[in-house]
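Need C-alpha coordinates for this chain, all 208 residues.
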Amino acid sequence: MGASRGASATLRTVREGAVLVAVAVLVAFLVKTFVAQAFYIPSPSMVPYLKINDRIVVSKLSYDLHPVQRGDVVVFKAPPSQQPLQLPDTSPTVVRWLRDVGTAIGVVAPSTEDYVKRVIGLPGDVVEARGGRVYVNGRLLAEPYLPRGDLTSDFGPVVVPAGRLWVLGDNRGDSCDSRCFPEGAIPASSVIGRAVVRVWPFGHLSFL
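Here are the C-alpha coordinates for all 208 residues:
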Protein backbone atom coordinates (compact mmCIF):
# COMPACT_ATOMS: atom_id res chain seq x y z
CA MET A 1 0.00 0.00 0.00
CA GLY A 2 2.79 2.39 0.98
CA ALA A 3 4.73 1.60 -2.22
CA SER A 4 1.61 2.29 -4.27
CA ARG A 5 1.13 5.66 -2.62
CA GLY A 6 4.80 6.50 -3.16
CA ALA A 7 4.59 5.64 -6.84
CA SER A 8 1.41 7.70 -7.18
CA ALA A 9 3.07 10.69 -5.52
CA THR A 10 6.10 10.38 -7.80
CA LEU A 11 3.88 10.21 -10.88
CA ARG A 12 1.96 13.27 -9.71
CA THR A 13 5.22 15.18 -9.18
CA VAL A 14 6.43 14.25 -12.67
CA ARG A 15 3.14 15.38 -14.19
CA GLU A 16 3.22 18.67 -12.28
CA GLY A 17 6.81 19.22 -13.35
CA ALA A 18 5.89 18.59 -16.99
CA VAL A 19 3.03 21.08 -16.72
CA LEU A 20 5.31 23.70 -15.18
CA VAL A 21 7.88 23.23 -17.95
CA ALA A 22 5.14 23.55 -20.57
CA VAL A 23 3.83 26.72 -18.93
CA ALA A 24 7.34 28.16 -18.71
CA VAL A 25 7.91 27.47 -22.42
CA LEU A 26 4.57 29.05 -23.29
CA VAL A 27 5.26 32.15 -21.19
CA ALA A 28 8.76 32.52 -22.66
CA PHE A 29 7.31 32.19 -26.16
CA LEU A 30 4.59 34.78 -25.52
CA VAL A 31 7.00 37.24 -23.88
CA LYS A 32 9.52 36.78 -26.70
CA THR A 33 6.84 37.25 -29.35
CA PHE A 34 4.99 40.24 -27.96
CA VAL A 35 6.85 42.00 -25.13
CA ALA A 36 10.63 41.67 -24.88
CA GLN A 37 13.51 39.43 -25.82
CA ALA A 38 17.07 39.00 -24.64
CA PHE A 39 19.79 39.14 -27.28
CA TYR A 40 23.38 37.97 -27.23
CA ILE A 41 25.97 40.29 -28.83
CA PRO A 42 28.16 38.11 -31.08
CA SER A 43 30.31 40.73 -32.84
CA PRO A 44 32.34 43.90 -32.11
CA SER A 45 30.27 46.14 -34.41
CA MET A 46 28.88 48.18 -31.48
CA VAL A 47 32.08 48.41 -29.39
CA PRO A 48 32.58 50.20 -27.03
CA TYR A 49 28.87 50.73 -26.32
CA LEU A 50 28.16 46.99 -26.52
CA LYS A 51 30.83 44.34 -26.32
CA ILE A 52 31.03 40.73 -27.50
CA ASN A 53 29.11 38.40 -25.13
CA ASP A 54 26.99 41.21 -23.68
CA ARG A 55 23.32 40.34 -23.21
CA ILE A 56 20.73 43.02 -23.85
CA VAL A 57 16.96 43.13 -23.48
CA VAL A 58 15.02 44.49 -26.43
CA SER A 59 11.58 46.01 -25.98
CA LYS A 60 9.09 45.02 -28.66
CA LEU A 61 6.52 47.50 -27.35
CA SER A 62 8.56 50.72 -27.61
CA TYR A 63 7.60 51.50 -31.17
CA ASP A 64 3.94 50.81 -30.49
CA LEU A 65 4.13 53.82 -28.16
CA HIS A 66 6.34 56.19 -30.17
CA PRO A 67 8.20 56.32 -33.48
CA VAL A 68 11.83 55.32 -33.94
CA GLN A 69 14.16 58.15 -32.89
CA ARG A 70 17.61 59.07 -34.09
CA GLY A 71 20.21 57.58 -31.75
CA ASP A 72 18.12 54.55 -30.79
CA VAL A 73 19.97 51.23 -30.69
CA VAL A 74 17.77 48.73 -32.48
CA VAL A 75 17.76 45.03 -33.30
CA PHE A 76 16.48 44.21 -36.77
CA LYS A 77 16.29 41.39 -39.26
CA ALA A 78 19.32 41.42 -41.53
CA PRO A 79 18.69 42.62 -45.08
CA PRO A 80 18.21 39.85 -47.66
CA SER A 81 21.75 40.39 -49.00
CA GLN A 82 23.19 39.53 -45.56
CA GLN A 83 21.09 36.49 -44.73
CA PRO A 84 22.77 33.08 -44.94
CA LEU A 85 21.35 30.22 -46.95
CA GLN A 86 18.62 28.61 -44.88
CA LEU A 87 18.59 24.85 -44.57
CA PRO A 88 15.56 22.92 -43.26
CA ASP A 89 15.64 22.53 -39.47
CA THR A 90 15.36 18.80 -38.85
CA SER A 91 15.86 19.04 -35.09
CA PRO A 92 13.26 17.32 -32.89
CA THR A 93 10.43 19.62 -31.80
CA VAL A 94 11.53 19.60 -28.15
CA VAL A 95 15.05 20.66 -29.18
CA ARG A 96 13.64 23.57 -31.20
CA TRP A 97 11.49 24.63 -28.23
CA LEU A 98 14.46 24.55 -25.86
CA ARG A 99 16.54 26.52 -28.36
CA ASP A 100 13.80 29.14 -28.65
CA VAL A 101 13.56 29.47 -24.88
CA GLY A 102 17.34 29.73 -24.55
CA THR A 103 17.43 32.42 -27.24
CA ALA A 104 14.56 34.31 -25.59
CA ILE A 105 16.43 34.59 -22.29
CA GLY A 106 19.80 35.28 -23.92
CA VAL A 107 21.70 32.13 -22.97
CA VAL A 108 21.76 30.78 -26.52
CA ALA A 109 23.33 32.82 -29.30
CA PRO A 110 20.70 34.03 -31.78
CA SER A 111 20.81 33.33 -35.48
CA THR A 112 22.99 35.53 -37.69
CA GLU A 113 19.80 36.97 -39.16
CA ASP A 114 19.51 39.54 -36.35
CA TYR A 115 21.66 42.69 -36.34
CA VAL A 116 22.08 45.42 -33.73
CA LYS A 117 22.96 48.95 -34.89
CA ARG A 118 22.26 52.60 -34.10
CA VAL A 119 19.67 54.63 -36.01
CA ILE A 120 21.34 57.62 -37.67
CA GLY A 121 18.91 58.66 -40.41
CA LEU A 122 15.10 58.79 -40.36
CA PRO A 123 12.80 58.79 -43.41
CA GLY A 124 13.39 61.93 -45.49
CA ASP A 125 16.76 62.74 -43.87
CA VAL A 126 19.80 63.47 -45.99
CA VAL A 127 22.73 61.62 -44.43
CA GLU A 128 26.39 61.70 -45.36
CA ALA A 129 29.86 61.32 -43.94
CA ARG A 130 32.74 63.52 -44.98
CA GLY A 131 36.07 64.13 -43.36
CA GLY A 132 35.33 61.33 -40.90
CA ARG A 133 32.21 63.02 -39.50
CA VAL A 134 28.51 62.29 -40.00
CA TYR A 135 26.10 64.98 -41.14
CA VAL A 136 22.30 64.84 -41.11
CA ASN A 137 20.43 67.40 -43.18
CA GLY A 138 23.64 69.38 -43.52
CA ARG A 139 24.32 69.57 -39.79
CA LEU A 140 27.13 67.83 -37.95
CA LEU A 141 25.70 64.98 -35.88
CA ALA A 142 26.84 64.93 -32.26
CA GLU A 143 27.88 61.35 -31.44
CA PRO A 144 29.05 61.22 -27.81
CA TYR A 145 28.85 57.42 -27.83
CA LEU A 146 31.84 57.18 -30.19
CA PRO A 147 35.37 56.99 -28.78
CA ARG A 148 37.33 60.20 -29.19
CA GLY A 149 39.13 60.21 -32.52
CA ASP A 150 36.96 57.56 -34.20
CA LEU A 151 36.24 58.43 -37.83
CA THR A 152 33.46 57.35 -40.16
CA SER A 153 34.26 56.38 -43.74
CA ASP A 154 32.85 58.84 -46.27
CA PHE A 155 29.50 58.09 -47.89
CA GLY A 156 26.59 59.89 -49.49
CA PRO A 157 24.86 62.20 -49.42
CA VAL A 158 21.94 59.77 -49.33
CA VAL A 159 18.25 60.57 -48.96
CA VAL A 160 16.64 58.03 -46.62
CA PRO A 161 13.52 56.71 -48.40
CA ALA A 162 10.09 56.68 -46.80
CA GLY A 163 9.63 53.73 -44.46
CA ARG A 164 13.37 53.14 -44.09
CA LEU A 165 16.16 53.86 -41.59
CA TRP A 166 19.87 54.53 -42.05
CA VAL A 167 21.81 52.54 -39.44
CA LEU A 168 25.47 52.46 -38.42
CA GLY A 169 27.47 50.43 -35.93
CA ASP A 170 29.31 52.41 -33.27
CA ASN A 171 32.54 50.61 -34.17
CA ARG A 172 32.77 52.45 -37.48
CA GLY A 173 35.91 50.64 -38.59
CA ASP A 174 34.46 47.16 -38.02
CA SER A 175 30.75 47.21 -38.81
CA CYS A 176 28.74 46.14 -41.82
CA ASP A 177 25.78 48.50 -41.83
CA SER A 178 23.89 50.79 -44.21
CA ARG A 179 27.25 51.76 -45.73
CA CYS A 180 27.84 48.23 -47.00
CA PHE A 181 24.33 46.81 -47.36
CA PRO A 182 23.46 46.82 -51.08
CA GLU A 183 19.99 47.88 -49.90
CA GLY A 184 21.44 50.83 -47.96
CA ALA A 185 18.75 51.95 -45.53
CA ILE A 186 16.83 49.14 -43.83
CA PRO A 187 13.02 48.80 -43.83
CA ALA A 188 11.53 50.17 -40.60
CA SER A 189 9.30 47.09 -40.66
CA SER A 190 12.37 44.87 -40.14
CA VAL A 191 13.03 46.37 -36.68
CA ILE A 192 12.37 43.84 -33.91
CA GLY A 193 12.66 46.35 -31.10
CA ARG A 194 14.74 48.88 -29.19
CA ALA A 195 17.60 47.88 -26.90
CA VAL A 196 16.65 49.11 -23.43
CA VAL A 197 18.97 47.48 -20.90
CA ARG A 198 22.21 45.50 -20.70
CA VAL A 199 21.71 42.60 -18.29
CA TRP A 200 25.06 40.82 -18.64
CA PRO A 201 27.70 40.97 -17.40
CA PHE A 202 26.11 41.91 -14.09
CA GLY A 203 28.91 44.35 -13.31
CA HIS A 204 27.91 46.39 -16.37
CA LEU A 205 24.14 46.30 -15.82
CA SER A 206 22.78 49.54 -17.30
CA PHE A 207 20.01 51.16 -19.26
CA LEU A 208 20.81 51.81 -22.90
